[in-house]
Predict the 3D structure of the following.
Amino acid sequence: MNRAKLVAVAAGSLFLLGACGGSDEPRDAGNATTSTEPGIASGEPTPTPPGDTPTSGDPAGRVVDFGEDGVTLTSAPDVTDLAGAPADFRAFIARELAKEQAQSDDVCTEKPQIKVSRIDPRGWAAGGTFIPQCGGNATLWAKPDGTWREVWAGQQLVDCATLKRYAFPADVAGGTCLDGDDEVPYAAAR
């Protein structure tokens, strides 16, 4: 696969392509599913972002998967649709949405939106930021020092170094990443 692959994060389950339509309706969070990363149930140590100690969410590491379309946030109250997400992530993502919407653009006149695809309540999430009819970026968020922040955004597959730096679980970040120009399998370090 080549570097020109547009906005693929988490094994291609989140696609944000410029000028492509999609549902502007928030997804029903009641349809979210959870999974447990291999190794967690067996008692193996779970990676956490550097300097972070899990403080909220499910200590068993269940990832909430909001499905192929994710949960679309168009205004701050939409964060209630993020069932299973910790309160600090919901507050963070509402602030991020407000910052995006406070910016003006003469070409893209619609308000930016944020989609959340998957979240591990211990400190990792995947989704994207986009403006309807203008395009956007895939985004990864993490809690490297106990505070949520954006750690990567782009329009191609995420680089392996970023996933390793923040110890992203594969079931949040996906099963592949870029090592230079090559797409390679990704498995979270144990």
Q: What stands out?
A: The chain is about 15% helix and 25% strand. The CA atoms of residues 85 and 123 lie 10 Å apart. Strands lie at 33-36, 62-65, 71-73, 113-120, 124-131, 135-142, 149-154, 176-179, 182-185.
